[in-house]
Amino acid sequence: MSSAFHPAIAEMVRTLALILFFGMVAGRASAQSQVDEYRLKAAFLFHFAQFVEWPANGLPSDEMVFCIAGEDPFQGDLEKTVQGKVIGGKSVRVRHLKQVQDGRGCQLLFIERNERARDLVVSVKEMPVLTVGETDDFLRQGGIIRFSMEERKVRFDVNQEAAEKAHLNVSARLLLLARSVVGRKQ
Questions:
Q1: Which one of 46, 78, 155, 183 has the largest count of C-beta atoms within 10 Å of its C-beta?
Q2: Most trustworthy range by pLDDT among 7-11, 23-27, 70-74, 114-118
Q3: Which H, E and C letters describe the chain, residue by residue?
Q4: Inter-CA distances, 35 with 7, 72, 79, 109, 171, Å
Q5: Percent of the chain at pLDDT above 70?
Q6: pLDDT the model gives residue 152
């Protein structure tokens, strides 16, 4: 097989893996505890980051930083999920934020449902930060991806307009798997 096919095959395998992952885990939260819900959400966060493209100047040279604002609902599962993992040649590290202004330097910012999401989203507005939250109005506040539970299944919605303002390119494959996409260009 020619080496010219390897990138295409690799991309096809990644796409199939993403579809299988989201198809299988979306239903796993049903009848399970909140701990299991956040274990699944940790895996979702890792996969979201794989299907978002940051501008060249939006990533430090050696690592990608996932930040958690507020209490850690993952109870360490996000660290376990990303331990030893690499995205785009960069190692993944988790950071816990203490103050709103700490959101700078994050590539992915998870905003726990009890935090003041609006203030955090505004603090990184138009910066290349993938914001992910859980509140009902998260997308209206300018967040990019919102988790929700539907029939005890983990689902997500995407605000494409907010992603573009943050100079992030969300893969069409990820958009297809979203429950809904707001700000989608025709």
A1: 78
A2: 70-74
A3: CCHHHHHHHHHHHHHHHHHHHHHHHCCCCCCCCHHHHHHHHHHHHHHHHHCEECCHHHCCCCEEEEEEECCCCCCCHHHHHHCCCEECCEEEEEEEECCHHHHCCCCEEEECCCCCHHHHHHHCCCCCCEEEECCCCCCCCCCCEEEEEECCEEEEEEEHHHHHHCCCEECHHHHHHCCEEECCCC
A4: 37, 11, 14, 20, 28
A5: 77
A6: 82
Q: Domain boundaries in the chain?
A: 3-182
Length of the chain: 186
Distance CA 95, CA 79 (A): 9
pTM of the model: 0.81
